[in-house]
């Protein structure tokens, strides 16, 4: 399978999932400005959504939306327990996390990347994200990972989006639980491998 990614973008979460899975994969970088892949392909022809991540399966089928891609990867390597078994209550709880991170946290960051967004509006979005961080801190207190002791792809996703605080004038040290969590997730070899592949380690 082949992942299309942009360094530091939300596609990093799928990149982490791939390294954590131990599966064989290729990864091709996208230039988000030109929408051309490193090998010169027009990304709109690969996915009309033109967003990362996108995953081409070994059969040449395309999957988009990070939460679906991460679950597909996890299900290809069940022994790694990157998602709980399909059909179990735990699986729905892990999906609850993926959806929360995608809809509330990831997209809560998006306006802060918009250079045309007025600073006053950005302050409102930062304050809103702060409330999500309060919730995440309370949930993670006393646990290594979102699902307790077991790392799942949702942790790779949360790690990816929390990393954006460094570039967006958000001081994560106000949330010591989240600081500790980021450090814990960062120490995993699969996460380090993804960071290295994206030139961030
Ligand atoms: N709903 C998509 C959103 C993906 C997304 O927001 N990708 C961003 C990078 S983090 C992107 O490609 N932005 C460029 C664009 O929208 O043109 C998902 O969850 O995978």
Write the layout of secondary structure elements.
Blueprint lengths: L1 E4 L5 H11 L4 E6 L4 E2 L5 H4 L7 E3 L5 E3 L1 H11 L12 H21 L9 H22 L12 H10 L13 H11 L2 H9 L4
Parallel strand pairs: 1-2
Antiparallel strand pairs: 1-4, 2-3, 4-5
The structure holds glutathione.
Tell me what the structure shows.
The chain has a five-stranded mixed sheet with strand order 3-2-1-4-5. The longest helix has 22 residues, at 119-140. It is globular, with a radius of gyration of 17 Å. With 201 residues, the protein is of the alpha+beta class. The mean pLDDT is 98. It contains eight helices and five strands; from the N terminus they run E-H-E-E-H-E-E-H-H-H-H-H-H. Strand 1, helix 1 (11-21) and strand 2 (26-31) form a beta-alpha-beta unit. Helix 5 packs across helix 7. 31% of the residues are buried. It has two domains: 2-80, Glutaredoxin (3-Layer(aba) Sandwich); 89-190, Glutathione S-transferase Yfyf (Class Pi), Chain A, domain 2 (Up-down Bundle). The protein binds glutathione (GSH).
| CATH class designation of the largest domain | Mainly Alpha
| Cα shape | globular
So, CATH architecture of the largest domain? Up-down Bundle
CATH topology of the largest domain: Glutathione S-transferase Yfyf (Class Pi), Chain A, domain 2
Rg over CA atoms: 17 Å
The arrangement of helices and strands along the chain is: EHEEHEEHHHHHH
Helical element count? Answer: 8
Beta-strand percent range: 5-15%
Structural class: alpha+beta
Q: Could you give a short account of the major beta sheet?
A: 5 strands, mixed
Helix content: 40-55%
- The number of distinct β-strands equals 5
Strand order of the largest sheet: 3-2-1-4-5
- Low-confidence parts lasting 5 or more residues at pLDDT below 50? none
The total tally of domains equals 2
What value does the average pLDDT take? 98
């Amino acid at each position: 399978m082949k992942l299309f990614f942009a360094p530091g973008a939300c596609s990093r979460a799928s990149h982490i999932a791939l390294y954590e899975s131990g599966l064989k994969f290729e990864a091709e970088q996208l230039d988000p400005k030109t929408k051309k892949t490193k090998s010169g392909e027009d990304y709109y022809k690969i996915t009309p959504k033109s967003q990362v991540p996108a995953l081409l399966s070994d059969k040449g089928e395309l999957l988009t939306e990070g939460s679906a891609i991460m679950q597909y990867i996890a299900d290809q390597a069940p022994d790694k327990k990157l998602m709980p078994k399909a059909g179990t209550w735990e699986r729905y709880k892990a999906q609850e996390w993926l959806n929360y991170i995608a809809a509330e946290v990831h997209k809560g960051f998006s306006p802060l990347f918009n250079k045309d967004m007025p600073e006053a509006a950005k302050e409102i979005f930062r304050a809103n994200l702060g409330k999500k961080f309060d919730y995440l801190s309370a949930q993670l207190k006393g646990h290594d990972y979102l699902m307790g002791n077991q790392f799942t792809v949702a942790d790779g996703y949360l790690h990816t989006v929390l990393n954006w605080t460094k570039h967006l004038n958000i001081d994560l040290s106000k949330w010591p639980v989240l600081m500790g969590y980021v450090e814990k997730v960062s120490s995993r070899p699969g996460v380090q491998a993804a960071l290295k592949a994206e030139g961030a380690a």
